[in-house]
Amino acid sequence: MHYDYSRALLRDEVVVHLVDELCLYPDLADSIAKASKRYGFQFESGACTLQAPVNRNKAVVLRHLIIIDGIDNPEFVTNKYSDLVQKCTSATIAVSYSSKSTFFRATQDVERLKLQYEGKINYLLPSLFEEKYIPAKQKLIDNSICDSVRIKYVPKKTDELTEADIPTNIKNFFLKISDLIRVERLYHRASTDGFISIRSPDHGINSFYVTCTKTDKANIDISRIALINSYDRRTNCLSYKGSYLPSSDSVEAAILYQELSWINGLVHTHASNQFTRNPKYRNRIAVPPSSYGEADLGSRISSFITQSSFTDFVIMEDHGELFLSGEHTPNKIFEDIFKCIRHELI
To answer: Other C-beta atoms within 10 Å of 158: how many?
Structure first.
């Protein structure tokens, strides 16, 4: 049973387990432990923490397992830990690869395994480091957050947001972008990654609608859209209306809407093969591998856009792509983003 993120999870409700057999980063466990204290989740390291029968404490709503093991064989690693995976709400498996070719040969197995486990397992894409394809340390730390409590901001819900509250042209924008994401398969892990957003000047100069965290962007449910009232960088407080927590990337979106007044629409996807890892777009990398959900990331992207000539899309290295539009109506914003994506994929 997946949590719906209708509210922020409490520390006692979330446990992240780490099983690290490769020991690529000696201080990884300490780094995740620090993240657990900062963002509010319990952390346990070692397979032994899950070998015994899981304590079905009613307070625990979500258990996430991170496995770092194996060279070149994700199927072997998956089978090795299948019993532990079944004890958890979700799991991330990070396998290292000896070469680029072995990584690409394993991709079909990974896609099959994702279907077999019905999306329960996230197979973390490796980063090229010291001529080996290994999982990046920052991605592992971020995974402990984004697959558990998810948000780094302080949420402040001011009211509900019903479907009737959302203008028809705004709803149509979200539905059409959702169709585009589904048809073009603009995601790697799952269609719950990324966000769709559009500015809403009627509610304030920096207000915007955005998909809620863990929303299926390829088959969107309009009830999982939030209206961001404001974001306070000093307190990291995100004020919103809605039934569910706004996207974990709402902070970056808020900063971009604040700093780049010409932007009226933002769509963030994780189409690794088509865009993020496509050598054709190396010149569009706005930021190197960075921690998600933080104001500084938004400012660095904003600075790159301002200094570059790119007004259609940019890339966050090892993360995903961000499509932009300066058009002024929801339909025109959709057409702008649609033309950009289809033009690049032809």
So the answer is: 12
